[in-house]
């Protein structure tokens, strides 16, 4: 991170709500005592669940990676298509930056439908398959992803997972949702600062101009980087 990146961020992005904050704000609205909330793809330490710890809800996290025990929540190492919880036992499911990695969407949608109570809600924030980063990702073999992300974003390779983009546009989501008894209650497209280029000031500035155009111009809305989705079980 350098002077140009810092200036660009302060000038163009400091006042813009990141899609992560959009999701967090909604979860804090919905999380109340007595609910069972499931973070599907919670990560090693379930950081998003930790933000709901004061809600009074029962908090459950599921992921395939090794999970470190956390106070006040139940963490389960399992595939999202085979979660060892009873039918109709969950009020709210959410996933952040997970659905782009799902190889078998029917299994995951079906499992979410099984776990949710009637009227239960599934919220996920995921990459748009038509965002330029997603397009490059789809064209690049997964074996190269970790090195690219480490170079441009500085993330550890252990935190980079293969992508599939099988439920990452409106048509794909609508098709899977209808097939598994969900209705779409909210569908939003969001932009954000170009995180991929945060460590390269000139590229960060150029990508910012593109991102701002995508956010501002309605006919480019389909290229925004993030999809925020709320599904309700019928």
UniProtKB/TrEMBL annotation:
Record GO terms (molecular function): S-adenosylmethionine-dependent methyltransferase activity
Keywords: Methyltransferase, Transferase
Methyltransferase type domain residues: 38-124
GO BP annotations, alphabetical order: methylation
Pfam families on file: Methyltransf_11
Record-linked PANTHER family: METHYLTRANSFERASE (PTHR43591), RHODANESE DOMAIN-CONTAINING PROTEIN (PTHR43591:SF110)
Protein name: Methyltransferase type 11
Organism this protein belongs to: Rhizorhabdus wittichii (strain DSM 6014 / CCUG 31198 / JCM 15750 / NBRC 105917 / EY 4224 / RW1) (Sphingomonas wittichii)
């Amino acid at each position: 991170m350098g002077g140009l990146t810092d200036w660009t961020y302060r000038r163009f992005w400091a006042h813009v709500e990141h899609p992560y904050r959009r999701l967090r704000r909604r979860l804090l609205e919905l999380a109340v005592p007595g609910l069972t909330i499931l973070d599907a793809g919670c990560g090693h330490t379930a950081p998003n669940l930790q933000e709901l710890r004061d809600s009074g809800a029962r908090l459950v996290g599921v992921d395939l990676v090794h999970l470190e025990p956390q106070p006040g929540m139940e963490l389960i190492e399992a595939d999202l298509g085979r979660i060892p919880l009873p039918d109709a036992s969950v009020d709210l499911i959410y996933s952040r930056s997970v659905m782009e990695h799902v190889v078998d969407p029917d299994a995951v949608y079906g499992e979410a439908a099984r776990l949710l109570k009637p009227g239960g809600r599934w919220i996920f924030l995921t990459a748009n398959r038509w965002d330029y980063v997603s397009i490059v990702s789809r064209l690049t073999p997964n074996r190269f992803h970790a090195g690219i992300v480490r170079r441009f974003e500085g993330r550890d390779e252990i935190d980079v997972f293969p992508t599939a983009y099988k439920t990452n546009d409106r048509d794909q989501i609508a098709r899977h949702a209808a097939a598994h008894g969900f209705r779409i209650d909210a569908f939003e497209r969001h932009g954000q600062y170009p995180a991929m280029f945060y460590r390269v000031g000139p590229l960060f500035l150029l990508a910012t101009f593109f991102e701002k155009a995508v956010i501002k111009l309605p006919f480019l809305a389909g290229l925004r980087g993030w999809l925020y989705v709320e599904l309700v079980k019928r």
